[in-house]
Amino acid sequence: MSSLISRKENYSKWYNEIVIKSELAENSGIRGCMIIKPYGFAIWEKMQSVLDKMLKQTGHENAYFPTLIPKSYLSKETNHMEGFAKECAVVTHCRLKNTPDGKEIMLDPKSRLEEELIVRPTSETIIWDSYRRWIQSYRDLPILLNQWANVVRWEMRTRLFLRTSEFLWQEGHTAHASREEAIEEAKKMLRVYTNFSENFMAVPVIQGTKSETERFSGAEETYCIEAMMQDGKALQIGTSHFLGQNFSKAFDVKFSKQFGGKEYVWATSCGVSTRLIGALIMTHSDDYGLVLPPKLAPIQVIIIPIYRNHEQLRIIEKSVTIIKKYLENHGIRTKYDYQNHKTPGWKFNEYEMKGVPLRISMGIREIEKNQVELFRRDTMEKQLCSQNEFLRLAPKLLEDIQNKLYNRALKKRNALMFHVNNYEDFKKILDNKGGFISAYWDGTIETEKKIKEETKATIRCIPLNSDTKKGYCVYSGKPSSKKVFFARSY
Amino acid sequence: MSSLISRKENYSKWYNEIVIKSELAENSGIRGCMIIKPYGFAIWEKMQSVLDKMLKQTGHENAYFPTLIPKSYLSKETNHMEGFAKECAVVTHCRLKNTPDGKEIMLDPKSRLEEELIVRPTSETIIWDSYRRWIQSYRDLPILLNQWANVVRWEMRTRLFLRTSEFLWQEGHTAHASREEAIEEAKKMLRVYTNFSENFMAVPVIQGTKSETERFSGAEETYCIEAMMQDGKALQIGTSHFLGQNFSKAFDVKFSKQFGGKEYVWATSCGVSTRLIGALIMTHSDDYGLVLPPKLAPIQVIIIPIYRNHEQLRIIEKSVTIIKKYLENHGIRTKYDYQNHKTPGWKFNEYEMKGVPLRISMGIREIEKNQVELFRRDTMEKQLCSQNEFLRLAPKLLEDIQNKLYNRALKKRNALMFHVNNYEDFKKILDNKGGFISAYWDGTIETEKKIKEETKATIRCIPLNSDTKKGYCVYSGKPSSKKVFFARSY
Fold first, then answer.
1. Closest-CA distance of chain B to residue A479, Å
2. What is the pLDDT, as a whole number, of residue A104?
3. Domain range B417-487, CATH class
4. How confident is the model over A284-335, as pLDDT tens digits?
């Protein structure tokens, strides 16, 4: 386990090294598709379990829809089609056969499908095709379904967790009897994601809506939460979409209203993905490796014995057994690393790299004094303390780390928020610091496009509850009441 | 909610009707791919949560590998390739574009992939391609990974849950330093599946190994558990495979041995799928609908109020609140159906169809006497009992139902087990009753094939721990020491 390149030296390389060295994931032999290794997947499982409960509390039920979608479904909603057609994995055949020499394998041309299927990039189309069968009356509404699934989007430039050709996610798809109810659902999911991001990932976010350009293909409004990474680039954490009647019209889904008449159903969708793990890494980690918030850490306390011989180990293990059992009984995820072909120093590095919030280690001297050496990953501070004190303190320490990580991230994020009134400052700050740049925008696609071309910054969001003061567009100088956040982004 | 066709009248139709009417799943617009509806998915989630714990207890960690696999990977292990090549969904392109008239969507011929990818039918190949990078030394072994995933096998004849072009499953993939350890792992997983099947699904099984013909493509030995459905057909519940060194040789995965030298790694894989839900349905259900074992029932107790007016409902709901809270505090999954546009009769049918183990209902008369009407789905028995007595009894009743369902299934299964000594009896029993037919087999592929052609029965398994007496092959009359189970199967 060698050390990392520093963030300062090469942020992008630092990120890749962390993912590899902490054994979260690696690239596979398939372009842009990653392998999520057990430690990375354990983080995803923690995320899933929290989010799944939250989704169920808002009334969502889980279901599962086919991964293969006929291409004709995709073409029913024009914007949706235009957004996804360019990055679809397309299934055209259903059989392989041996090459004439019998040594290799090739497509069996006789197995051409009547209609091509795409591997789902998202499931609005297949789900609304089903909702047509399921919805007749206002009594059938609302429907709130969620699916945990893999999706494929053939991205040209990929990065582990942040942008991969295949990723894992949850996608919520809801159907409602009124526009208002659907909009409220989309906003509610944004609150759920905000809660998850801030209180579990310890990642502060800005809530807002997307500009038309950045909107989900097929949505009338995209709500989003945006976070700021340590290098000054923004990262979209999650989105929820008010889809209006776009999909119900495309798939002809009407309901009989309570007091007569028929109407097209109102829709939303929402999702967060394994990209969250990228956000987690880039928000908290440092030049020593991962730093994980305790609530999502697969291992919260690592125990490492220090010994010269088997007799010492036997004595140490007596204490370890008691400590481990106590912690586990108190719901703390604890691991005892007893590998004897690795040195304590190797293990110290290993779990620092893996971002385990608390480490305790003990040699025969500590055991004799009923002590442990306690190490906090967030502050890198070491101290000796009595075993009893440690056991008493452990839950509070984990809580404290969780809070401190959030506050530290908030402070860093706030230090990367700027308001500018002119385009020179805009460009200067963007080049020197990055960050969220709050500025007035004239609301036109042209201005947005020009700014993107000239600076690579995009409108990350139009914040919810922004002030209503008026100003002048940072680019065109036209009067404007839209103060938005620009940033370069992942 | 209309009633079902009876099992006697048309078992196959009965099965399909149950799946649809209890809202477990339905067919989609994609050939052979099903939509798992919330109630069906809730059963799968229960299964997952139990199995996931069991797998973790045996040391498995979860991970995730790409769903798209280069076709060249598949061709590396010859038997594996031959088993799966004929049913692969093949991705050939990565983009769609508008047709010239702009109205439809078509394949973009310029987006042809250099190498075709298949949607995973199983993940041995992609996983062993990774194990090559992960395994160098005996210290890296064993590796025990599990993946929860969707897989696609382009089956020609599909049936909801039992055989679908896409299904959900868990697949375990392990790597070991010795043949013995790998074989023990495969056997251990068979015990895990047996435990799950018998103690959670309440489905009795026979443990055995497959004949060469029925073996997993690429395995040296396939261990399996087989259950008997009510119509006399067998269903394979789960399999675990000793893969020998087939995949390590195909993917060149060697390890340095503890005491010098290099050796190819030993492998196993194992899996159970959403097919388990088919087994659950066909083992326990009756002409009134599903019957679910309490341990896997998404709803264990349904509460239905019977009232004429709002005032009565208000009084009833006071008791409901107390009862529901009490049950939930005792870990019992409880639902109160308060829909007021459905009659109690409709609801009774609905939850009988859905196989909810216990129902309580109460009108104003019962409330006045502190009573409830209690209904057991397994026996269809009704009785009045005091609310307190019900609360006291509920956990025991659920346990009792779980046990009774197992015993009932075992009795039915045992009534469908026959030993025969000659081919006439073999055919007669098969045609009249079906079931497991225990008979001597001469061990040749020819005999197996002839019997299959003539009777549609296959060797379901060579039972573990069968007696060692010798006899004569039921078909060829040759001396044999292999007593195996034949059956027609799903």
1. 39
2. 86
3. alpha beta
4. 999 999 999 999 999 999 999 999 999 999 999 999 999 999 999 999 999 9
Sign of CA dihedral A129, A133, A135, A136: positive
Find out whether B479 and B472 touch, Cβ atoms under 8 Å: yes
> Which residues from B are below 8 Å from A61, CB to CB?
38, 41-42
Nearest to A69 by CA among A137, A129, A120: A120
- The alpha carbon of residue B271 is apart from the nearest alpha carbon of chain A, in Å, by 18
User: Among residues B329, B194, B173, which one has the least CA distance to residue B242?
Assistant: B173
- Mutation target among A47, A62, A88 for the B interface, most CBs of B within 10 A: A88
Q: Which residue of B has its CA nearest to A99?
A: B75
Say whether domain B294-401 belongs to CATH 3.10.450.750.
Answer: no
Please give the single-letter amino acid code of residue A458: T
> Which CATH number, 3.40.930.10, 3.40.50.1110, 3.30.930.10, 3.40.50.300, labels domain B11-66+124-284?
3.30.930.10
Express each pLDDT in B409-453 by its tens digit. 999 999 999 999 999 999 999 999 999 999 999 999 999 999 999
Instruction: Compare CB distances from B36 to A26, A63, A126 and report the shortest one's residue.
Output: A63
**Chain B hits for A37, Cβ within 8 Å:** 63
Check A63 against B38: CB less than 8 A apart: yes
B302 in Cβ contact with B356 (< 8 Å): yes
DSSP-derived pairing of the beta strands B262-264 and B301-305: unpaired
B188 CB-contact burial (10 Å; exposed 0-12 / middle 13-18 / buried 19+):
middle
E strands in A166-285: 166-176, 206-209, 221-228, 234-244, 254-256, 262-264, 266-273
Give the residue carrying structure tokens 């799946």: B19
Q: Which chain B residues contact residue A66 at CB under 8 A? A: 28, 30, 33-35, 166
Q: Say what the ipTM of the complex is.
A: 0.97
- CATH 3.30.930.10 domain span(s) along chain B: 11-66+124-284
Say how far apart CA B166 and CA B168 lie, in whole Å. Answer: 7
CATH 3.30.110.30 segments of chain A: 417-487
Nearest CB among A44, A90, A130 relative to B107 is that of A90
Say how far apart CA B216 and CA A233 lie, in whole Å: 49
Residue A438: closest CA among A258, A149, A185, A234: A234
Phi and psi at residue B300, to the nearest 5°: -95, -35
Cite the DSSP H helix spans in A30-77. Answer: 38-57, 71-74
Tell me which chain B residues have a C-beta less than 8 angstroms from the C-beta of A129.
28-29
Rounded Cα distance between A42 and B257, Å, is 30
A294-405: CATH architecture:
3-Layer(aba) Sandwich (3.40)
The verdict on domain A11-67+123-284 having CATH code 3.30.930.10 is yes
Q: Residue B90: its chain A contacts at CB < 8 A?
A: 91-96, 107, 111
User: Which of A3-7, A50-54, A273-277, A412-416 is predicted least confidently?
Assistant: A3-7
